[in-house]
Prior knowledge:
CATH class: Alpha Beta
Order of helices and strands: EHEHHEHEHHE
Distance between the termini: 17 Å
Mean pLDDT: 86
Largest sheet: 5 strands, parallel
CATH topology: Rossmann fold
Amino acid sequence: xxxxxxxxxxxxxxxxxxxxxxxxxxxxxxxxxxxxxxxxxxxxxxxxxxxxxxxxxxxxxxxxxxxxxxxxxxxxxxxxxxxxxxxxxxxxxxxxxxxxxxxxxxxxxxxxxxxxxxxxxxxxxxxxxxxxxxxxxxxxxxxxxxxxxx
Length: 150
């Protein structure tokens, strides 16, 4: 089964790279993959509260870095013939993934089950981003585990 358009949330962790690789294996030859990076507003607030940076400067640095990393991923796969797009948004990761998936009417979401923060007390109490997306979206979701390899 090949899919026409896939949303792949990425946090640049090894597992989000595995999710991207898996999406590449599912996409139709003329399909589209959208890489989505969410700048977590709660993380930006914590950085600011600790005195490392003001929120606007921190957000701009994160956006610039994320856009560059997304462009690197796109450039690495430019010769594949698959149409790749990227987006950087600001908000709560699971909520933004759900919003973008609904607004752009994707056929499938492919995401890693553990990202950079995977496994902390917050995840234990409130669930992971992947779990929240799974519970709330009408779009089919493929969760790629940390030990998956192509």
